[in-house]
Amino acid sequence: MATAALIREALKKARRYKKDLDAAAADNELDPPDFDAKCEALLPVLSREIPVHIHAHRADDICTGIRIAKEFGLDYSIIHCTEGHLISEILKSESTKVMCGPLLCDRSKPELYSLTPSSAGILDKAGVNVSIITDHPVIPVQYLMLCVSLAVKNGMDRFSAYKAVTINPARLCGIDSRVGSIEIGKDADLVLFNGDPLDIFTKVIAVYIDGRKVK
């Protein structure tokens, strides 16, 4: 609760600062507020120029993050979302973007008590825009496809799992016009495998960056 209060207070202060700046810009008789570096840093957040990552594990913390984001009209996504499978209907109704993971970790703190590799699949079936992450360097990024395999093994649709590490995160990052899917006009960044990408024995046989073979 204290963390949420601090975040809300900082955003309220920045919103008030922006209001005073706009008022001074519109009326020469008004003095602008004193420069505030902290408020200045939050102005692009309030204008949705910069997206917000809300790191939350527990369902109540996830809901708190959503409430704050709605209050200030933020462009946000939930990182980890460990208990998201318990509130999938809420996440769907709020059109919440979710980065699910890491899956390869232990329950080293109370917030991870409900950790399950089935979470991504449950969220996907509920219609949530879900991406799968490793939280690198917590879990090295080379284990990403292993995390995808775990999600599929625990009920996630295979095609949805591929989207969770391609077009979904590209859309979340606002770069889907260039990457995330194989389409005319996009960057020709391709990886070729000698078998099923989710099979542990499958090997990469070629890598192309901007259409040029690099491996």
TrEMBL record:
Keyword annotations: Hydrolase
The keyword RNA-binding belongs to this UniProt entry's keyword annotation: no
A Pfam family: Amidohydro_1
Coiled-coil segments on the chain, per record: none
EC number of this enzyme: 3.5.4.2
Keyword Iron on entry: no
UniProt-recorded name of the protein: Adenine deaminase
Organism: bioreactor metagenome
